[in-house]
Amino acid sequence: MEQNFEERVLAFLAERKNSIAWLRSLENPNWENAYIHPKVGAVRASLLLSNWLAHDYLHIRQITKLKYDYLKSTCGEKLDYAGEW
Description:
Oligomer: single chain
Number of helices: 2
């Protein structure tokens, strides 16, 4: 499926902006509130928020690794001095 990268990035950024605005609008949220999932049990709000952030960090790691590998394959220099991946 072919997609317009710029449109997808703009849509993501708009949705992220809305999500952050919603989080900021919460007044004294109870992060211990939980939904009881039929298979995994209690799923607390704090778990969802923490995993949302962790998920972003994993994507950042993936992007960084792709950029590093691209540099390594195109720069014509050894990158050992920079440190180990």
